[in-house]
Amino acid sequence: MKHNRIRPALVGLFALLAVVLPFLTGNIYYLHVATVIGVYWVLIATLNLLVGFTGQLSVGHVGLLAIGAYAFCLLAGGQGWNPFLALLSGGAICAGIGLLLGLPSLRLPGFYFAMATLAFGLIVSELALAEQWLTNGSVGMPAPSFPTPFDTPRGFYWLVLGIAGLVTWMTANVARFMWGRAMVALRDSTVAASSVAVPIYRTKLIVFVFSGFTAGIAGGLYATSQTYITPDAFIVNLGIYFFVAIIIGGRGVIIGPFIGAAVLAAIPELVGPLAKYGTFFYGLILLIVVLVLPGGFGELITTLAARLRRDRQSATSIEPDLPGLRDVIRGQT
Amino acid sequence: MSGALEARTVIRRFGGLLAVDGVSLELRPGEIHGLIGPNGSGKTTLLNLISGYYTVDEGSIVLAGQDVTGHSVRDRALSGVARTFQTPKLVLSLPVLDNAMLGGWRSVRSGFLETAIAAPRPKREEAEIRARAVDILRGVGLGQVMDKRADLLEHTAQRFLEIARALTSRPKFVLLDEPAGGLTGTEIQHLADIIGVMRDGGIGVLLVEHHTDFVFRICDRVTALNLGRVIAHGSATAVRNDPEVIRVYLGA
Q: Model pTM?
């Protein structure tokens, strides 16, 4: 890779900006929006591993977000657990549910898997409304906040930022090592993937469970960011928006869906008459991306970077280095 | 024979058609074994049976004395059986080097979480597989295009990349499905040289191919199929001069 120096510089700059953001804006409201972007990102970053890299089209992650949120509120609020323990437990519960959901559904071909996750999202949404003994039904329940120093808007923002940074780092690691190649291989060609011994079903399952875990964590953080949760917050549309964020961002690019996450979080917060057109804008962006930039913004960036590096198709003359090849092959035993 | 990859009287039906009808074939380590025959004679079907993409209806597939008939494609790849495809099956959205590195998956022991936290083992494996893939790519002549996306490669380069991917997996056996298809004379010579190096390195190469000159020139042994049955097998010279092979395939 030739852009070795540019990328870390950009990542560092972005991280620095994110860290000092509370000092740049005195507006608590903007900070809240930034926090929600971070919360969504915790879910979307790993959903991107599942949808963008592995090619498994889950539109039901809102169900996991909801379970994570309710688990956090019930454990940290009702049961009085330490919020951090409750947050991790919510993640673990969602990982377990991801496993149970993935075991049968990841054997299905793509479209049917998408339908299974949609059904899951619908079921969770209905259960949150109907099971009043657990969820208070449409009344909802308050979400506990985290202990000091994370109980202020700034403190909570930094907590979310830290978790989001950790999740980003983990997904980037998965993507850049052999597991990432295996995921893209099984997405693009199961025949090629199986010929090099990639465990197709197991890989899908592990990625799904991992994305379930962070969706549960995102749920707990989401609850705290909203201070109060009701079933309306977890309508199935939100799951589709998460999915759309990845389409907008571009599959197979780690940071791409961040644009989608940012737009998604900003929309309901738009002030004035524009607010009711929020979903309209989201749909419009999706339409433009699908029609004009099928690879999403992420691919646009990749293409521009490649253009800068002057990659182009050129005739290759293949000149084998036989002595070299002999050495490598002989060296294997 | 110990160490060989064998098909033992395998039968495969597609509906009422007997695509492979009791074929036995033995691929030894360190030999180039040609598999020839007219279109529809069952060559590619046999290759798919040996690599596990199709299941056999009767008979067995044996690897180094062990019955692997029920093993999946993945299990056979893990045991050291690599292959290429008639139409190259590459991950077109990934660079050439990454495609070759995929062959290294066979030796990956790192788990998902270990990789997520960038523990020492995945880093070490990554470096080893990368180094090997780079050496192999240079060896087959793709050293100049390692950073290119695979979909930017021409047809010949894609074929060589599939071979590089197979070799990165440190295979015991490589099954090549019409590797010379669409190649120029010079390129076929390069291919022959590469296959020769593979043989010398102890790899058993099964070569399914229509370029019969090429097959008879480089193969140690040849098996000829017609209508799903073996009509001749033995040394290249013996098969080339076999009257039945001449009658149904080579022509006078």
A: 0.93
